[in-house]
Design a protein that fits this description.
single chain, about 170 residues, mainly alpha, 5 helices, 2 strands, about 55% helix, about 5% strand, elongated
């Protein structure tokens, strides 16, 4: 369902881009900029809503939507077909269709990470002291200090005017 909504968002961006392109004359800079910009914006909208850019269907649809958007923009810019469309505009349209399709096949062919566990952030990794406590055998004597925060998230250096470390608290007495 997200793919369908993503393609709908891409189509909306393509329609808006066609109207904007139709307001400009078909000169070299406008057409070539549109050939790069329109597919990028369409793919951005479609991929964001669809949940990823690794799907070839997103990129192939973006190629078709971009080509249709540019053709519609050319039609508007030429007075609905009354003026001829320059040849370089059709070459730019071909570029607008080819590069998203090529990017989609490249993204789909890229190697993927095996489905292993997610990497652990530095804040969630246990401190060496916590790892040592977890692997050391239990002792009969109670510990003298207990950590105040999990995994040592508070720095161990005491602030000015403190007598003990910030992340330690005195042991409870029986």
């Amino acid at each position: 369902m997200r793919l369908a909504w993503g393609l709908f968002a891409g189509a909306a961006v393509a329609a808006a881009a066609a109207v904007v392109l139709g307001d400009y004359p078909l000169t070299g800079a406008v057409v070539w900029t549109a050939a790069v910009l329109i597919p990028g914006l369409v793919a951005l909208a479609a991929g964001w809503v669809a949940g990823g850019w690794r799907r070839p269907a997103v990129w192939l649809a973006c190629a078709a939507l971009s080509g249709g958007s540019m053709a519609w923009g050319f039609r508007i810019a030429t007075g609905w077909g009354l003026d001829p469309t320059p040849l370089f505009a059709w070459a730019a349209l071909a570029l607008a269709v080819v590069w998203p399709a090529a990017a989609g096949f490249t993204a789909a062919a890229a190697p993927r990470q095996p489905g292993g566990p997610a990497p652990v952030s530095a804040a969630a990794q246990p401190t060496p002291a916590a790892a040592q406590r977890a692997t050391s055998p239990p002792t009969d004597s109670p510990p003298t200090t207990q950590p105040a925060s999990p995994a040592g998230l508070i720095p161990e250096t005491p602030g000015p005017g403190t007598e003990r470390a910030v992340n330690e608290r005195p042991a409870q007495r029986p």
